[in-house]
Write a structure and sequence with these properties.
- Keywords: Hydrolase, Metal-binding, Zinc.
- Residues 12-192 form the Metallo-beta-lactamase domain.
- By secondary structure, this protein is an alpha/beta fold.
- The chain has one domain (2-208): Metallo-beta-lactamase, Chain A (4-Layer Sandwich).
- The chain has helices at 34-43, 64-71, 88-91, 168-179, 198-204, and strands spanning 2-8, 13-19, 24-28, 47-52, 75-78, 109-111, 115-119, 122-128, 137-141, 146-150, 153-154, 157-158, 187-190, 196-197.
- The longest helix has 12 residues, at 168-179.
């Protein structure tokens, strides 16, 4: 199993393609540039099974319908953001003047619990990591040694908490309780910026000091 990071959309949000040896794949946070993403999938002969969303901010959902409609696959999101996909006020697109309001259809599956999830041959764990937004989740692929953290944890930083439903204290607790407890060698695939590791963030992320 391997993964690929693809910055997409107006603010270059990281989309991730998690690929199995049989060319099936999961698409995490298709944030925009639908044609570019579809062309890449088609060129590589990949077979998407599902769209997984770490949360429903506009920069993570811009190409949801392009992927869902092209491949007729389900979309997963946490239940606390069930209504965000179709509401520009909740997903934030309404408040950015250079962004067209984004509306997507409702998710096909609501994530209600933490724990193991299986889609096709993919097995991973869902961790509820709220704070950046109420329904933020991280997807942890234990065997492969990486976690897709959305906008919870970045290299040297953490997610902003001044948007709808944000909570700084809750975000710090999520990071410490759910992410920093992972093996230190775990790769952190963030929603923006470069890949990091749990060890590096424990050692040098000043936002986490003194929690």
């Amino acid at each position: 199993m391997k993964w690929q990071q693809i910055p997409l959309g107006s603010i270059q949000t990281n989309c991730y393609i998690v690929e199995n040896k049989d060319k099936t794949c999961l698409i995490v946070d298709p944030g925009g540039d639908g044609k570019k993403l579809l062309n890449l999938l088609n060129t590589r002969g990949l077979k998407p099974l599902a769209v997984l969303l770490t949360h429903a901010h506009f920069d993570h959902i811009g190409a949801v319908e392009d992927v869902r409609n092209t491949y007729q696959i389900p979309v997963y999101i946490h239940k606390q953001e069930e209504k965000w996909l179709g509401d520009p006020a909740l997903n934030g697109s309404q408040f950015f003047p250079l962004i067209e309001p984004i509306k997507a259809n409702a998710a096909d599956h609501l994530i209600k619990d933490e724990g193991e999830m299986n889609i096709g041959e993919f097995t991973f764990n869902v961790c509820h990591t709220p704070g950046h937004s109420p329904g933020s989740v991280s997807y942890y692929f234990a065997k492969e040694g990486f976690v897709i953290s959305g906008d919870a944890l970045f290299q040297g930083s953490i997610g902003r908490t001044d948007l709808q439903g944000g909570n700084h204290a809750q975000l710090l607790k999520s990071i410490h309780d759910k992410l920093l407890t992972l093996p230190e060698e775990t790769y952190v695939l963030s929603g923006h910026g470069p890949v990091t590791t749990i060890a590096d963030e424990m050692d040098s992320n000043t936002f986490l000091n003194g929690f």
